[in-house]
Amino acid sequence: MTDSPIIQARGVAKRFDDFEALAALDLEVKKGQCVGLLGPNGAGKSTFIGCLYGVVVRSGGELNVFGLDPATQARDIKRRIGVVPQENALDDGLTVLENMRIYASFGGLSRKVADPRIAELLSYMLLENKKDATIKTLSGGMKRRLTFVRALLADPELLILDEPTTGLDPSVRHLLWEKVIELRSRGKTILVTTHYMHEAEVLCDQIVILDRGKVVGTGAPRELIEREAPGFVGIFPAGVEEALKPHLAATWELFHQGQQCCVRAPRFDDLLELQRTSGVTALQLRPSNLEDVYLKLTGSELNDDE
Ligand SMILES: Nc1ncnc2c1ncn2[C@@H]1O[C@H](COP(=O)(O)OP(=O)(O)OP(=O)(O)O)[C@@H](O)[C@H]1O
Protein backbone atom coordinates (compact mmCIF):
# COMPACT_ATOMS: atom_id res chain seq x y z
CA MET A 1 0.00 0.00 0.00
CA THR A 2 2.87 2.40 0.84
CA ASP A 3 4.11 2.10 -2.76
CA SER A 4 0.79 3.23 -4.27
CA PRO A 5 1.26 6.48 -6.12
CA ILE A 6 0.15 9.66 -4.37
CA ILE A 7 -1.28 10.98 -7.65
CA GLN A 8 -2.36 8.74 -10.49
CA ALA A 9 -3.89 10.31 -13.60
CA ARG A 10 -4.89 8.33 -16.66
CA GLY A 11 -6.33 10.14 -19.64
CA VAL A 12 -7.57 13.07 -17.56
CA ALA A 13 -9.49 15.50 -19.76
CA LYS A 14 -11.31 18.75 -19.15
CA ARG A 15 -13.57 20.60 -21.55
CA PHE A 16 -15.01 24.03 -20.93
CA ASP A 17 -17.93 23.99 -23.40
CA ASP A 18 -16.20 23.47 -26.77
CA PHE A 19 -12.74 24.27 -25.49
CA GLU A 20 -10.42 21.42 -24.59
CA ALA A 21 -8.26 22.68 -21.71
CA LEU A 22 -6.80 19.23 -20.94
CA ALA A 23 -6.59 16.25 -23.29
CA ALA A 24 -5.77 12.82 -21.94
CA LEU A 25 -3.18 13.72 -19.31
CA ASP A 26 -1.25 10.79 -17.82
CA LEU A 27 0.80 11.37 -14.70
CA GLU A 28 2.08 9.34 -11.80
CA VAL A 29 3.60 10.93 -8.72
CA LYS A 30 5.15 8.67 -6.09
CA LYS A 31 5.66 9.45 -2.42
CA GLY A 32 8.64 11.72 -1.85
CA GLN A 33 8.91 12.84 -5.47
CA CYS A 34 8.95 16.44 -6.63
CA VAL A 35 7.24 16.65 -10.00
CA GLY A 36 7.21 19.79 -12.12
CA LEU A 37 4.35 20.73 -14.38
CA LEU A 38 5.64 23.14 -17.02
CA GLY A 39 3.94 24.84 -19.92
CA PRO A 40 3.07 28.18 -21.46
CA ASN A 41 0.22 30.32 -20.16
CA GLY A 42 -3.03 28.52 -20.85
CA ALA A 43 -1.41 25.07 -21.19
CA GLY A 44 -3.76 23.56 -18.60
CA LYS A 45 -1.57 23.40 -15.48
CA SER A 46 -3.98 25.16 -13.12
CA THR A 47 -6.89 23.23 -14.60
CA PHE A 48 -5.14 19.97 -13.71
CA ILE A 49 -4.30 21.22 -10.21
CA GLY A 50 -7.96 22.18 -9.77
CA CYS A 51 -8.96 18.64 -10.80
CA LEU A 52 -6.70 17.21 -8.06
CA TYR A 53 -8.76 18.61 -5.22
CA GLY A 54 -12.13 18.84 -6.86
CA VAL A 55 -12.30 22.57 -7.59
CA VAL A 56 -12.48 21.63 -11.26
CA VAL A 57 -14.47 18.52 -12.15
CA ARG A 58 -12.77 16.59 -14.93
CA SER A 59 -14.77 15.64 -18.01
CA GLY A 60 -12.98 12.35 -18.59
CA GLY A 61 -10.29 9.92 -17.51
CA GLU A 62 -9.33 8.39 -14.18
CA LEU A 63 -7.83 10.38 -11.36
CA ASN A 64 -6.78 9.27 -7.90
CA VAL A 65 -5.12 11.25 -5.13
CA PHE A 66 -4.12 9.09 -2.14
CA GLY A 67 -6.25 6.44 -3.85
CA LEU A 68 -9.33 8.70 -3.60
CA ASP A 69 -11.35 10.22 -6.43
CA PRO A 70 -11.39 14.04 -6.25
CA ALA A 71 -14.72 14.19 -8.06
CA THR A 72 -16.44 12.53 -5.08
CA GLN A 73 -13.95 12.62 -2.19
CA ALA A 74 -12.50 16.11 -2.42
CA ARG A 75 -13.01 16.83 1.28
CA ASP A 76 -10.87 13.87 2.36
CA ILE A 77 -8.18 14.81 -0.16
CA LYS A 78 -8.09 18.49 0.86
CA ARG A 79 -7.32 17.57 4.45
CA ARG A 80 -4.11 15.89 3.33
CA ILE A 81 -2.75 18.52 0.92
CA GLY A 82 -1.24 21.96 1.35
CA VAL A 83 -1.60 24.45 -1.46
CA VAL A 84 0.48 27.51 -2.27
CA PRO A 85 -1.76 29.13 -4.91
CA GLN A 86 -0.64 31.69 -7.48
CA GLU A 87 -2.20 34.49 -5.39
CA ASN A 88 -1.38 34.66 -1.67
CA ALA A 89 -4.97 35.53 -0.67
CA LEU A 90 -4.07 36.64 2.87
CA ASP A 91 -6.32 39.02 4.81
CA ASP A 92 -4.50 42.37 4.53
CA GLY A 93 -6.09 43.98 7.56
CA LEU A 94 -5.27 41.19 10.02
CA THR A 95 -1.97 40.25 11.63
CA VAL A 96 0.19 37.30 10.67
CA LEU A 97 -0.92 35.35 13.75
CA GLU A 98 -4.62 36.16 13.21
CA ASN A 99 -4.41 34.99 9.59
CA MET A 100 -2.74 31.74 10.52
CA ARG A 101 -5.17 31.08 13.39
CA ILE A 102 -8.12 31.47 11.03
CA TYR A 103 -6.65 28.96 8.56
CA ALA A 104 -5.74 26.59 11.37
CA SER A 105 -9.35 26.67 12.55
CA PHE A 106 -10.57 25.96 8.98
CA GLY A 107 -8.34 22.90 9.11
CA GLY A 108 -9.92 21.82 12.39
CA LEU A 109 -6.85 22.55 14.58
CA SER A 110 -7.59 23.67 18.13
CA ARG A 111 -5.86 26.82 19.40
CA LYS A 112 -3.74 24.64 21.71
CA VAL A 113 -2.39 22.63 18.78
CA ALA A 114 -2.34 25.52 16.32
CA ASP A 115 -0.35 28.13 18.27
CA PRO A 116 2.85 26.11 18.78
CA ARG A 117 2.59 24.83 15.21
CA ILE A 118 2.27 28.39 13.88
CA ALA A 119 5.25 29.53 16.00
CA GLU A 120 7.35 26.61 14.75
CA LEU A 121 6.49 27.28 11.08
CA LEU A 122 7.00 31.06 11.35
CA SER A 123 10.46 30.33 12.66
CA TYR A 124 11.04 27.76 9.88
CA MET A 125 10.23 30.44 7.30
CA LEU A 126 12.29 33.11 9.16
CA LEU A 127 9.20 35.12 10.08
CA GLU A 128 9.24 34.67 13.86
CA ASN A 129 9.53 38.41 14.54
CA LYS A 130 6.56 39.19 12.25
CA LYS A 131 3.89 37.41 14.30
CA ASP A 132 2.08 40.64 15.26
CA ALA A 133 2.66 42.56 12.01
CA THR A 134 -0.36 43.29 9.82
CA ILE A 135 -0.20 41.66 6.40
CA LYS A 136 -0.22 44.99 4.56
CA THR A 137 3.11 45.93 6.17
CA LEU A 138 4.88 42.81 4.86
CA SER A 139 7.05 42.66 1.73
CA GLY A 140 6.09 40.41 -1.20
CA GLY A 141 8.70 37.86 -0.14
CA MET A 142 7.38 37.77 3.44
CA LYS A 143 3.79 37.26 2.23
CA ARG A 144 4.95 34.39 0.05
CA ARG A 145 6.81 32.75 2.94
CA LEU A 146 3.67 33.17 5.05
CA THR A 147 1.62 31.45 2.34
CA PHE A 148 4.05 28.51 2.69
CA VAL A 149 3.46 28.56 6.46
CA ARG A 150 -0.30 28.39 5.81
CA ALA A 151 0.12 25.47 3.39
CA LEU A 152 2.16 23.56 5.99
CA LEU A 153 -0.12 24.12 9.00
CA ALA A 154 -1.84 20.75 8.83
CA ASP A 155 1.42 18.91 8.08
CA PRO A 156 0.18 17.82 4.64
CA GLU A 157 1.46 14.74 2.81
CA LEU A 158 1.21 16.44 -0.60
CA LEU A 159 2.24 20.03 -1.33
CA ILE A 160 0.97 21.76 -4.43
CA LEU A 161 3.01 24.81 -5.34
CA ASP A 162 1.52 26.92 -8.14
CA GLU A 163 4.27 29.25 -9.37
CA PRO A 164 5.76 29.49 -5.88
CA THR A 165 8.51 32.02 -6.60
CA THR A 166 7.12 34.18 -9.40
CA GLY A 167 8.22 37.78 -9.01
CA LEU A 168 10.36 37.17 -5.93
CA ASP A 169 13.90 38.39 -5.49
CA PRO A 170 16.68 35.80 -5.77
CA SER A 171 17.37 35.60 -2.03
CA VAL A 172 13.75 34.69 -1.21
CA ARG A 173 13.66 32.31 -4.18
CA HIS A 174 16.76 30.49 -2.94
CA LEU A 175 15.38 30.30 0.60
CA LEU A 176 12.15 28.75 -0.72
CA TRP A 177 14.11 26.27 -2.86
CA GLU A 178 16.06 25.19 0.22
CA LYS A 179 12.83 24.66 2.13
CA VAL A 180 11.20 22.70 -0.70
CA ILE A 181 14.27 20.46 -1.01
CA GLU A 182 14.24 19.92 2.74
CA LEU A 183 10.52 19.14 2.84
CA ARG A 184 11.04 16.61 0.08
CA SER A 185 13.90 14.98 1.95
CA ARG A 186 11.47 14.58 4.87
CA GLY A 187 9.17 12.52 2.62
CA LYS A 188 6.70 15.17 1.46
CA THR A 189 5.43 14.75 -2.08
CA ILE A 190 5.48 17.92 -4.14
CA LEU A 191 3.81 19.03 -7.35
CA VAL A 192 5.08 22.36 -8.62
CA THR A 193 4.23 24.56 -11.58
CA THR A 194 6.74 27.14 -12.67
CA HIS A 195 7.78 29.28 -15.61
CA TYR A 196 11.38 29.27 -14.37
CA MET A 197 13.22 26.41 -16.03
CA HIS A 198 16.17 26.70 -13.68
CA GLU A 199 13.77 26.31 -10.75
CA ALA A 200 12.41 23.13 -12.30
CA GLU A 201 15.94 21.79 -12.82
CA VAL A 202 16.89 22.53 -9.21
CA LEU A 203 13.75 21.15 -7.56
CA CYS A 204 12.21 18.42 -9.69
CA ASP A 205 13.12 14.81 -10.26
CA GLN A 206 10.40 14.44 -12.91
CA ILE A 207 9.08 17.01 -15.36
CA VAL A 208 5.90 17.02 -17.40
CA ILE A 209 5.73 19.62 -20.16
CA LEU A 210 2.22 20.56 -21.25
CA ASP A 211 1.24 22.56 -24.31
CA ARG A 212 -2.37 23.43 -25.17
CA GLY A 213 -3.68 20.72 -22.87
CA LYS A 214 -1.41 17.94 -24.15
CA VAL A 215 1.72 16.37 -22.70
CA VAL A 216 4.60 17.11 -25.09
CA GLY A 217 7.50 15.86 -23.00
CA THR A 218 8.16 13.97 -19.81
CA GLY A 219 11.18 12.66 -17.89
CA ALA A 220 13.87 13.63 -15.42
CA PRO A 221 15.43 17.03 -16.26
CA ARG A 222 18.77 15.55 -17.37
CA GLU A 223 17.02 12.80 -19.32
CA LEU A 224 14.90 15.37 -21.17
CA ILE A 225 17.97 17.45 -22.01
CA GLU A 226 19.92 14.39 -23.22
CA ARG A 227 16.98 13.17 -25.30
CA GLU A 228 15.60 16.38 -26.76
CA ALA A 229 18.49 18.84 -26.89
CA PRO A 230 21.85 17.18 -26.16
CA GLY A 231 25.15 19.04 -26.43
CA PHE A 232 26.09 22.70 -26.38
CA VAL A 233 24.45 25.87 -27.66
CA GLY A 234 26.11 28.85 -29.27
CA ILE A 235 24.02 32.01 -29.18
CA PHE A 236 24.85 34.36 -32.01
CA PRO A 237 23.55 37.82 -32.91
CA ALA A 238 20.43 38.15 -35.11
CA GLY A 239 20.93 37.95 -38.87
CA VAL A 240 24.10 35.83 -39.11
CA GLU A 241 22.41 32.63 -40.39
CA GLU A 242 23.89 32.87 -43.88
CA ALA A 243 27.41 33.40 -42.52
CA LEU A 244 27.12 30.34 -40.28
CA LYS A 245 25.33 27.88 -42.61
CA PRO A 246 28.28 26.82 -44.80
CA HIS A 247 30.21 25.82 -41.67
CA LEU A 248 27.58 23.66 -39.96
CA ALA A 249 27.90 19.87 -39.84
CA ALA A 250 24.82 17.94 -40.96
CA THR A 251 23.83 16.91 -37.43
CA TRP A 252 24.08 20.39 -35.93
CA GLU A 253 20.89 22.31 -35.41
CA LEU A 254 20.26 25.93 -36.38
CA PHE A 255 17.32 27.52 -34.58
CA HIS A 256 16.08 30.78 -33.12
CA GLN A 257 15.39 31.92 -29.58
CA GLY A 258 13.64 35.27 -29.92
CA GLN A 259 15.67 37.25 -32.47
CA GLN A 260 18.89 35.43 -31.70
CA CYS A 261 20.35 32.81 -33.96
CA CYS A 262 21.41 29.64 -32.13
CA VAL A 263 23.43 26.59 -33.07
CA ARG A 264 23.36 23.30 -31.18
CA ALA A 265 26.36 21.01 -31.63
CA PRO A 266 27.49 17.89 -29.78
CA ARG A 267 30.75 19.28 -28.40
CA PHE A 268 31.87 22.62 -26.99
CA ASP A 269 34.89 22.53 -29.32
CA ASP A 270 32.53 22.32 -32.33
CA LEU A 271 31.25 25.78 -31.45
CA LEU A 272 34.75 27.19 -30.98
CA GLU A 273 35.61 25.82 -34.42
CA LEU A 274 32.41 27.34 -35.89
CA GLN A 275 33.44 30.78 -34.59
CA ARG A 276 36.89 30.40 -36.18
CA THR A 277 35.69 29.16 -39.58
CA SER A 278 32.70 31.51 -39.94
CA GLY A 279 34.38 34.56 -38.43
CA VAL A 280 31.22 35.19 -36.35
CA THR A 281 31.71 35.60 -32.60
CA ALA A 282 29.06 34.09 -30.36
CA LEU A 283 27.38 36.14 -27.64
CA GLN A 284 27.43 33.07 -25.42
CA LEU A 285 28.47 29.40 -25.50
CA ARG A 286 26.86 27.10 -22.93
CA PRO A 287 25.64 23.55 -22.29
CA SER A 288 22.04 22.80 -23.34
CA ASN A 289 19.54 23.30 -20.56
CA LEU A 290 15.89 22.68 -19.75
CA GLU A 291 14.89 26.01 -21.28
CA ASP A 292 16.17 24.76 -24.65
CA VAL A 293 14.04 21.61 -24.28
CA TYR A 294 11.01 23.64 -23.25
CA LEU A 295 11.30 26.05 -26.19
CA LYS A 296 11.85 23.18 -28.60
CA LEU A 297 8.81 21.23 -27.41
CA THR A 298 6.37 24.09 -26.92
CA GLY A 299 7.57 26.35 -29.74
CA SER A 300 9.02 29.71 -28.83
CA GLU A 301 6.28 31.90 -30.32
CA LEU A 302 4.40 34.14 -27.95
CA ASN A 303 0.79 33.27 -27.18
CA ASP A 304 -1.89 35.58 -28.63
CA ASP A 305 -2.69 37.05 -25.22
CA GLU A 306 0.89 38.10 -24.58
N1 LIG B 1 -13.64 28.18 -16.05
C1 LIG B 1 -13.17 28.25 -17.29
N2 LIG B 1 -13.98 28.43 -18.34
C2 LIG B 1 -13.51 28.47 -19.61
N3 LIG B 1 -12.19 28.32 -19.93
C3 LIG B 1 -11.33 28.13 -18.92
C4 LIG B 1 -11.76 28.07 -17.55
N4 LIG B 1 -10.67 27.85 -16.78
C5 LIG B 1 -9.60 27.79 -17.61
N5 LIG B 1 -10.00 27.96 -18.89
C6 LIG B 1 -9.14 27.93 -20.09
O1 LIG B 1 -8.40 26.71 -20.07
C7 LIG B 1 -7.07 26.94 -20.56
C8 LIG B 1 -6.08 26.41 -19.57
O2 LIG B 1 -6.03 27.31 -18.47
P1 LIG B 1 -5.10 27.09 -17.20
O3 LIG B 1 -5.40 28.20 -16.24
O4 LIG B 1 -5.25 25.70 -16.73
O5 LIG B 1 -3.65 27.29 -17.83
P2 LIG B 1 -2.25 27.37 -17.08
O6 LIG B 1 -1.36 26.40 -17.78
O7 LIG B 1 -2.43 27.21 -15.62
O8 LIG B 1 -1.79 28.85 -17.41
P3 LIG B 1 -0.94 29.93 -16.49
O9 LIG B 1 0.51 29.56 -16.68
O10 LIG B 1 -1.26 31.23 -17.16
O11 LIG B 1 -1.42 29.83 -15.08
C9 LIG B 1 -6.95 28.45 -20.82
O12 LIG B 1 -7.11 28.68 -22.21
C10 LIG B 1 -8.08 29.05 -20.03
O13 LIG B 1 -8.56 30.21 -20.65
Question: Topology, pairings included?
Answer:
Blueprint: E1 7-16, E2 19-29, E3 34-38, H1 45-52, E4 60-65, H2 70-78, E5 81-84, H3 96-106, H4 111-124, H5 140-152, E6 158-162, H6 170-185, E7 189-193, H7 197-203, E8 206-211, E9 214-219, H8 221-228, E10 232-236, H9 241-244, E11 253-257, E12 260-265, H10 268-278, E13 284-287, H11 290-298
Parallel strand pairs: 3-7, 3-8, 5-6, 6-7
Antiparallel strand pairs: 1-2, 1-4, 8-9, 10-12, 10-13, 11-12
Helix pairs in contact: 3-4, 4-5, 8-11
The site of adenosine-5'-triphosphate has 11 residues, from β2 and α1.
Organism: Luteolibacter flavescens
Domain ABC transporter: 7-237
GO molecular function, one term: ATP binding
Question: Would you mind describing this structure in some detail?
Answer:
There is one protein chain. Helices cover 36% and strands 25% of the residues. The protein is built from eleven helices and 13 strands. It has helices at 45-52, 70-78, 96-106, 111-124, 140-152, 170-185, 197-203, 221-228, 241-244, 268-278, 290-298; strands at residues 7-16, 19-29, 34-38, 60-65, 81-84, 158-162, 189-193, 206-211, 214-219, 232-236, 253-257, 260-265, 284-287. The strands form three sheets. Strands 5-6-7-3-8-9 form a six-stranded mixed β-sheet, sandwiched between helices. Strand 11 and strand 12 form a beta hairpin. Adenosine-5'-triphosphate (ATP) is lined by residues 16, 19, 21, 39, 41-47. The site of adenosine-5'-triphosphate (ATP) has 11 residues, from strand 2 and helix 1.
